[in-house]
Design brief:
Largest sheet: 5 strands, antiparallel
Oligomer: single chain
Structural class: mainly beta
Strand content: 25-35%
CATH topology of one domain: Metal Binding Protein, Guanine Nucleotide Exchange Factor, Chain A
């Protein structure tokens, strides 16, 4: 995932096949392809102007050149 500000996020194709999912607080919105199920991007809970985008869904980016940061999701807050 890469971080993108709301004003810089542009869906150039497939918007008609996106479905969204919300849970817990309902603030974050996760968008998936309804056809293949890939997690495309999500609006963050803590800042609704920031999105995390699946780098494999971004045209023109070489994922091999993106630095990796491991995250311990199990230890994160659910509130």
């Amino acid at each position: 995932m890469i971080t993108v500000q709301r004003e810089n996020l542009k869906v150039i194709s497939g918007e008609d096949t996106l479905s969204s999912y919300q849970w817990n607080t309902g603030r974050a919105r996760h968008y998936f392809c309804a056809t293949c199920g890939i997690d495309t991007f999500h609006q963050r809970r803590m800042d609704e102007n920031v999105f995390s985008v699946n780098v494999f869904c971004v045209h023109g980016i070489d994922p091999e050149k993106i630095p990796i940061r491991h995250v311990d999701g199990k230890s994160r807050s659910v509130v």
